[in-house]
Amino acid sequence: SQLRALHLRNTCLTDSSLATVSRGFSLPNVTTLDLSDNPKLQGKGDFHFAEWLRESPRLTKLSLRNALIGGFELSQPSGWLKELTSLDLSKCRIQAGAMAHVVGVVLPGLTSLRHLDLSDNHISGRAAALLPLTLRQLPGLIRLRLNRTLTCKYV
């Protein structure tokens, strides 16, 4: 497939409809994937989001803004998102345990990351404690958005 960008923003996607889309699109050359503003995406059921992303070795920009990704298995990237330079997880309503996993396990593996947006998520507890260490592991990061995330006691 020659497809380079797949924009499915605000398309009322659900887990089952994304599973259907994933069967229809091969992503080996995709550099941009935008699933923003699909709040019914929950990462439940038989569809494994991370496995679909593994088919995208050239992915540089991933936007999941306002999608409920708390259930998605964003496992340690271990090279499969090594080209990712921009990640938007704003307004994803990521639960505390999942946020600790994202901050402590997922983000440190994204060594090419230059733009990160975690705005409008609640970062507290373990995730807040891990955040400074994780950010030091991302030397190429030039834009970080944490609007409305940290509570005052963690700042």
How is this structure best described in words?
With 155 residues, this protein is α/β, with parallel strands linked by helices. It has four helices and six strands. It has helices at residues 15-24, 49-54, 96-106, 125-136; strands spanning 5-7, 32-34, 61-63, 86-88, 115-117, 143-145. Strands 1-2-3-4-5-6 form a six-stranded parallel sheet, with no helix packed on it. Strand 4, helix 3 and strand 5 form a beta-alpha-beta unit. The radius of gyration is 15 Å and the shape is globular. The mean pLDDT is 84.
Short note summarizing the structure:
The chain has 155 residues and is of the alpha/beta class. It has helices at 15-24, 49-54, 96-106, 125-136, and strands at residues 5-7, 32-34, 61-63, 86-88, 115-117, 143-145. 25% of the residues lie in helices and 12% in strands.
Number of continuous helical runs? 4
Distance between the termini: 46 Å
User: Mind summarizing the main beta sheet?
Assistant: 6 strands, parallel
Instruction: Please indicate the percent range of residues in DSSP E strands (runs of 2 or more).
Output: 5-15%
Mean pLDDT across every amino acid position: 84
Number of strands: 6
The order of strands across the largest sheet is: 1-2-3-4-5-6
Oligomeric form: single chain
Order of helices and strands: EHEHEEHEHE
Shape: globular
The residue ranges in which pLDDT falls below 50 over 5 or more consecutive positions are none
Gyration radius, to the nearest Å? 15 Å
Q: Helix/strand-derived class? A: alpha/beta
Helix content: 25-40%
